[in-house]
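Your task
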Amino acid sequence: MNDLMYCGDAEKEIRDMVLNDYPESKLEDASDFIHEGRFSVEVTCEEDDWYIWVMRKGIHNLSLNWELERMEHPERMKPLLMKVLEEQSNDL
C-alpha cells in the first residue's frame, strides 16, 4: 500500500506512529516548495487495513489516499468507518 501523508508540523510524530506499527515501512520525504511536512509511505498491508489504521489513529485526514477514496467511493469507505466507530464505542 502506498500513500502520501500531509502532516505539516506533525511530520515527525506521524512518521514515528507509522514506523511504530509498521516497522518494515518505507518512508520518503515528499516535501517541495509548496507542500512542507509531506512524506510518502509504503507499507505491506491491504488498503482496507491501512484505511482502518489511519482512522483508528485519528490521522485519516492527513492521508491523500483515504481522502480520495472517501470522495470517489463513499460506499466502500462507510463500512470501514462504521467498524472503527463501533470499536471505539465498545471501548467506552
